[in-house]
Amino acid sequence: MSSEHKRKKSPGDRTRKPGSLLAPDIWERFFQGDRLACARLITAIENHPRLVPIIRDRLIPLQKGGVRIGITGPPGVGKSTVTAALARRTIAGGHSAGVIAVDPSSPFSGGAFLGDRVRMQGLGGDPRLFIRSQASRNGHGGLSPSTPYATDVLDAFGLDRIFIETVGVGQAELDVLTCADLILLVLQPGTGDVIQTLKAGILEIADIILVNKADLPGADLLLDSLKFLFEIGLRKTAKPFPSVLTASALQDKGLDEVHAEIERRIRGLVESGELHEKKRQRLERDIQSAIRDNLWEKFSTLTNARDEIRAVAGRVLENRQSPYPYLRRTCSRVRITFAKEGAKRDDSEKKTVGRRVPKGRAAGR
Ligand SMILES: Nc1nc2c(ncn2[C@@H]2O[C@H](COP(=O)(O)OP(=O)(O)O)[C@@H](O)[C@H]2O)c(=O)[nH]1
Ligand SMILES: [Mg+2]
Hints:
binds magnesium ion; 7-stranded parallel β-sheet; 7 strands
């Protein structure tokens, strides 16, 4: 059982029978734009990873290509305030918006989560907006593994700008940020957090950097150090330098420019075909990892691999015995087993087709 399953259930689950997690009419309601159905699908994905393929089967034909915007940065820099301001502008600009706020520091009932809720409240009730908070699952800065699938739900729900707020502190952030089409990094003056984001690799992948809290002293200094970091060749990737903007979300200043820059970037991504390519690459990775998981599961069951690998590792350490003969032996054993399975499947498919043919003919007469 995965850690996902072991986690404490969210308050909503307690009142619900497991069998009703996917209520029979959930899809009908989802198609009709029922927000509760949308929320329930996300909850189902969070609590039951086994439902992911079933749910995604239904979601994929509905997806409309909503753009995913990752908003990241150290805790307290104003990400939630900025996200709310951007969501408001997105709606005013004629789009619909989804917000997924992931905060590793706060459990479902925790303070920061409630704080985010309060901050987003100004937006509550607008039918063009859907807000969802997700807690991180493993307590060491990791993000909810279901976040990318939750964005799929929002996309299929018809939201065309999906903001994903994450705390930029570690490797797991980068993973979740790879599900974003555009990344906005928020920093604030006077904290030295820029080094932390540099270490985490986020400075390198950001498309737009926002120096928020420009009402506080030190914004110019931060802008200078960013300029310096880029001049000394921070970017090892071929990615163009990010746009750097300043704002004070608290005073609602500079956010029009940030919103305009996001929309400008999105237009660029669409026109150059990059958005399409990003989505294709993401799907490729997704399919690859599904195959890897599936094969590993099968492989480890077929070969008792976990125990054997443990024994082989022991022999490498204690007897200096190379693991490669084991690898070759096991892989060829698995090849034989898979080949047999494939042949069996071909046979049974032939039989099924064989059975169907006369029926079809009979019907044709
Ligand atoms: N002075 C100042 N405070 C801000 C600004 N933007 C946000 N804050 C405050 O910073 C604190 C953290 O903001 P929040 O949006 O929760 O940050 P997050 O943790 O990055 O999501 C809150 O008390 C905000 O009111 C700003 O532009 N200037
Ligand atoms: Mg926040």
